[in-house]
Amino acid sequence: MEGLARQLAPLRLTRGGPGEQPLSVELGLAELLELGDPYAFDPAATWVQRPSRDRLRVRLGIRADGTPIELDLKESAQDGMGPHGLLIGATGSGKSELLRTLVLALAVTHPPNVLNFALIDFKGGATFAKLDRLPHTSAVITNLVDELPMVDRMADAINGELLRRQELLRAAGNFSSLRDYEKARAAGAPLAEVPTLFVVCDEFSELLSRRPDFIDTFVQIGRVGRSLGVHLLLASQRLDEGRLRGLDTHLSYRIGLRTLSDMDSRAALGVADAFSLPTAPGHGFLRFGTDPLTRFRAAYVSGVHSPSVAPVAKPDAGEPLGLAEYSTTYIAPKAEHEAAVVTPAEDPDAVGESLLDILVDRLAGQGAPAHQVWLPPLAESPTLDQLLGGLTADPVRGLRARRPDLNGRLRAVVGVVDRPLEQRRDPLVLDLGGAAGHVLVVGAPRAGKSTALRTIITSLALTHTPARCSSTAWTSAAARSARSAGSRTSPAWPAGRTSARYGAPSPRWSRCSPPGNAGSPSTTSTEWPPTGRCGPPAPSPTIRTATWCWSWTAG
């Protein structure tokens, strides 16, 4: 007996029911992260300085023994699993929900000055709906399947971010990696914070089937993202290994939810186990390096929020066993948890806020907003007052632009230049001074030629006095309300006579006449300021003539 006692002494009983019991319960993210009441969640409580070990490490779900499973996005040199990974899951496996859980868990535990997101959904589903409100979000790009030309814009945006980070590290002191940059900053160097960028691309296989050349962008992230702090997670319903040429070696961790076939499971994980997973969403395997597969079930964020009934087990060495009174009756070990109640399937008609809605509301507007990697295309034209920095009423000069750099320089702001690679938009400025003062506007019917001419005339009128610049337009309604409009003529006026007269302006153009004086089709009428005020002849203005065939000639 003594020998048996010595053999049993080091052993400890673990608590809990059957090993599969924790995986039968749906667990909300708030319970997994131990946030308490999500309505009372304060980001300041979780956005604290984290030890290096916990940086970019986040709980994803629970293991078969009820303990949390974590995903560590740091590179292996920092004892992480990343920086790049793969997620495969068939329809109904919970792939989209897992992506939402992962992004929201990272947002809850990391402030936007530490981690940003670029979220891409090729098919334009609801995977990342509402996550654009997070202060961490640098880009949400969706519905590319219907707008394939936008894929090029996305490639420019991603490559532009890689170039921006490379230039930032070079200018800061030729740092070889973001990790070295952060070490210098921690040592007291006056350097700006550069958050890690986590790029998540859902339905990447579909993207590569439509645009195979986009693999080059993914490979570029795989090669240089590690040193630049750009991490990549690719997700799809199935995996075509042939499309991952040059990229598979960069994918250090892999997550497999239930797959459509054992071949898909083998392609993703190396084994067929994911094909046999339960049909309930969220069940999966995690593989990192040569470690064995880890079975887990992911937490959820999209269902109607209700308090969890299944607390998460905390790993420990167990408690010392006490002595029980001798009995011939079997004594079952105490369970770690109270009896867990299996959560019923989510009612699609249930009404209420989801955990995602609640936590996004609590996070929105907190912290500094992320640098915008993606600028949406110019679907709507900006207004002229936006381009001019707003307008102000000057008691002497009338309505004026707020941008002093444009006043009196014969420069007209007429539009916006879209630069997705540089991640910015610049004003389109026409410099009409000197030899550059000739502009030709060409376009098909209803292409916007008249709008372009009105914009040029109005832009000059808002940045110049009539003494400095006067616009003369043929049949242009835009000039009728412009304070600095010089003259206009009817289409009946012969083009040759009009051009000759406009080429040598008559001094009488600057004389006063009653407001509202209208000329006949064979004469030139003078447009006056709305106030009707008269004064001495103004100095000879610079004449810019717009003809009704949409050309400009310098006077």
UniProtKB/TrEMBL annotation:
ATP binds at G89, A90, T91, G92, S93, G94, K95, S96. Residues 481-539 are annotated as: Disordered. Keywords: ATP-binding, Nucleotide-binding. GO terms for molecular function: ATP binding; DNA binding. Residues 481-490, 520-531 have a biased composition (Low complexity). InterPro entries: FtsK/SpoIIIE/SftA (IPR050206), FtsK_dom (IPR002543), P-loop_NTPase (IPR027417). Residues 66-266 form the FtsK domain. SUPFAM superfamilies: P-loop containing nucleoside triphosphate hydrolases. PROSITE patterns: FTSK. This is FtsK domain-containing protein. It comes from Phytohabitans rumicis.
